Amino acid sequence: MSGFSFQLKKTDGRARLGEIKTAHGVVRTPAFMPVGTQAAVKAMRPDEVRALGTDIVLANTYHLMLRPGAERIAQLGGLHKFMNWPHPILTDSGGFQVMSLSPLRKIDADGVTFRSHLDGAMVALTPERAVEIQDLLGSDIAMQLDECLRLPAERAEVERAMRLSLAWAERSKRASEHAKNRALFGIVQGGAEPSLRIESARALVDISFPGYAIGGLAVGEGQEVMLATLDLVTPVLPADRPRYLMGVGTPEDLIEAVSRGIDLFDCVLPTRNGRHGLAFTRFGAVNLKNARHAGDPRPLDPESACSAARDYSRAYLHHLVKANEILAAMLISAVNLAYYQELMDGMRAAIAAGRFADFREEARGRWARGDFAALT
Amino acid sequence: MSGFSFQLKKTDGRARLGEIKTAHGVVRTPAFMPVGTQAAVKAMRPDEVRALGTDIVLANTYHLMLRPGAERIAQLGGLHKFMNWPHPILTDSGGFQVMSLSPLRKIDADGVTFRSHLDGAMVALTPERAVEIQDLLGSDIAMQLDECLRLPAERAEVERAMRLSLAWAERSKRASEHAKNRALFGIVQGGAEPSLRIESARALVDISFPGYAIGGLAVGEGQEVMLATLDLVTPVLPADRPRYLMGVGTPEDLIEAVSRGIDLFDCVLPTRNGRHGLAFTRFGAVNLKNARHAGDPRPLDPESACSAARDYSRAYLHHLVKANEILAAMLISAVNLAYYQELMDGMRAAIAAGRFADFREEARGRWARGDFAALT
Question: A332: which chain B residues are within 8 Å (Cβ-Cβ)?
Fold first, then answer.
């Protein structure tokens, strides 16, 4: 872990400005990680992802262990080289996607056994194997294996999964002692149960990790429950370790979570919505499938630093979406990722200047006002 | 037509080095035009298409007249602005795709009536309307409406279609007299019938066009018939006008056609094959779907000027193809387009240096040798 460190540089309310150092470079926090599920951020070249202001990407252990395989990626020199991304990479543990994608799975104290959604093979994932896979990939930040439930769930079930995840946290840490140049994060579970969330967080802090993730949110519980959980959990976590809210979220989620002390995010929304014709801009979401754009010569945002938002008309983007052109996914994903990174950059600058509350109000005001093109 | 001119700068055997000037810039010939069927080169951003050495792209009148409509594109400032491509554009007349895509069509002396493959609406296309549409699009080089048959076809049928295309050539030219800043090319037809090809070419030269296309090839007749047709037709065409071989072809087709005096090409192969995992390199075609690439750390061509060919391993490209990642289409299309433009650049330099025959032999030698990775 010699290659990993976190420095908290400034706080503004509970919002935090920081810097994670890894063997592959620096991550300015709060940071948004585009998702490269299968070792590729969908419809984006890695040099573009970087140019839009990305410090770190996430890749999914579940997908990569099944195809092309962790050992194969290790033979090829690791994930950074494989995907031509020489900058920081965080990998999840595979647990979440075993739950959501595998057609058949069995969980016991030892780990999870599941059927591959690709070829039907039975695959076993233990806390130790999840660590080993992430070492083979060469991630800068690895995640412990956990069990993630869909909400709502019975309290007893939530408690069982939380305690299992804690046991796996200890085993993951032991399996990880040898690791140089990468950090292992523990994951707070406990569903929507305040006492379980606090218990989980305290127990993980006792085990001690270089960073803490908050998992099991954005799985159907609604933004209020999510924010209430953050209000409970972040005060339990040590100030000198980064905090990662997994799988979140919308631009509003990001601002609200940063205002509650979160440092790291990942989400498929910018690229998934990009492939479905939905653009994020400073003035809210724009559905480019809508026929009202068909004759609109204006770009999505003439003031964007991103060429895709500035140099192509809404009429053209609408046409590309209707015509099922791959270029639609490419351009709108770029627009969305640019906006997400611009938002993170704005938050970092606002915290540095001690004006995060103002920044938050300004952003919310623009979203409330709505897309400028709808108003003119 | 004041904006259009052609200068023949040098010949080497029958191969020609030239320059087309248009209102939107210069086209160095021999030139390859990537195909932007629906106002987008598939899976490529226009700035990338340009950066890979492209002077001119082709767009398809048939697709654009149906969606988003020629009048709509005109309202939006024309095709160059619409697709963010401020460089030269050639449009076809729509005739070829009426034949190949419309589920229902009726041809008579006046023109063709067909059912849109998008919404079933009946649409009429006459020589005059084809010119009007291309004017609305704002093309730099427009094509006359012609009737293109699939080969083999009966001689009587080929003759009928050729004569109809000649009549439409005259009407197209009359409809085009007013046009400023764009050229109209006539299209030589006549199938695989030598006497009809020569008659068609002579008649078009009598009508007089600023450039001549050779159509109705690469429609199933085989390379030998195609090259024999070029041997017959190019001597009939005036040396001071550019010659465009429509819809062709493979890298070998391009070299053979240039050696017979052709100046302009378009073909979907580089981008279509790119979407299907097939790469073109200096050493021939590489099928990246093939499992033999799964562990291969080598790039497609370490000496390519194209990042996609140089900075990504075959193993990674194989993975992207297997995983159906859009990035596979993006990278392999770029590899292919880069190779096509590198080939054209090599041909232009060879003609300038008076060593086209050597260049042709060297290229054929590399293709015959095969992909370097297969041999090592």
Answer: none
| Overall fold of domain B5-267 | TIM Barrel (3.20.20)
pLDDT in tens, B255-298: 999 999 999 999 999 999 999 999 999 999 999 999 999 999 99
- The CA–CA distances, whole Å, from B84 to A142, A313, A316, B48, B88 equal 42, 9, 9, 12, 12
Q: Encoding tokens for residue B87?
A: 């460089």
Is there a contact between A44 and B327 if contact means CB atoms under 8 Å apart?
yes
Q: Does A130 touch chain B (CB under 8 A)?
A: no
| Residue that has been written with the tokens 């090599």 in this structure | B346
Other C-beta atoms closer than 10 Å to the C-beta of B324 total 9
CA angle B307, B312, B314 (to 5 degrees): 130
User: Which one of B38, B84, B325 has the shortest CB-CB distance to A325?
Assistant: B38
What's at B141, amino acid-wise?
I
**Is residue A41 very low, low, confident or very high in pLDDT (cuts 50, 70, 90)?**
very high
Query: Which residue of chain B comes nearest to A333, CA vs CA?
Result: B326
Q: Is B311 at the interface with chain A, CB within 8 A?
A: yes
Strand partners, B58: B35, B90
Residue A232's identity, in one-letter code, is L
Tokens 């992802």 locate to: A49
Nearest to B25 by CA among B185, B140, B138, B136: B140
Taking a contact as any Cβ pair under 8 Å apart, which residues of chain A between 145 and 204 contact chain B? none
Radius of gyration of chain B (CA): 20
Structural domain boundaries in chain A: 56-267, 274-362
**Sequence-separated (6 or more) residues with CB below 8 Å from residue A36:** A42, A57, A58, A59, A60, A83, A85
What is the spatial distance between Cα B240 and Cα B236, in angstroms, rounded to a whole number? 12
pLDDT per residue as tens digits for the range B126-178: 999 999 999 999 999 999 999 988 878 899 999 999 999 999 999 999 999 98
pLDDT at B199: 98
Average pLDDT, stretch A293-313?
Answer: 96
| Residue among A116, A326, A331 with most chain B CBs within 10 A, to mutate | A326
Quick check: A76 and B295 CB within 8 A? yes
Whole-angstrom distance, CA of residue A98 vs CA of residue A114: 7
Interface check A38 vs B, CB under 8 A: yes
The DSSP bridge partners found for residue B213 are: B187, B244
Residues pairing with A183 in the sheet: A141
Q: Which residue of A has its CA nearest to B299?
A: A82
pTM: 0.97
Q: Output the pLDDT for position B374.
A: 55
CA distance B225 to B217: 9
Which helix (H) or strand (E) element contains residue A254? Answer: helix A251-258
Displacement of CA B23 from its chain's centroid (Å): 20
Strand A183-188, strand A141-143: pairing: parallel
Is A92 annotated as catalytic? Answer: yes
Nearest residue to B39 via CA among B89, B98, B101, B105 = B89
Q: How far is B345 from chain A (nearest CA, A)?
A: 26
| CB-based contacts of B245, cutoff 8 Å, min separation 6 | B213, B214, B217, B230, B257, B262, B264, B265
Q: Residue A297: is the preceding peptide bond cis (ω within 30°)?
A: no
Q: What percent of chain A has pLDDT over 90?
A: 89
Mean predicted lDDT score pLDDT of chain B: 95
Q: Which residues from chain A sit within 8 angstroms of residue B295, using beta carbons?
A: 72, 75-76
* Residue A112 CB contacts under 8 Å (≥ 6 apart), including other chains: A95, A98, A105, A106, A124, A125, A145, A147
The class (CATH top level) of A56-267 is alpha beta
3-state helix, strand and coil shares in percent for chain B, rounded to the nearest 5: 45, 20, 35
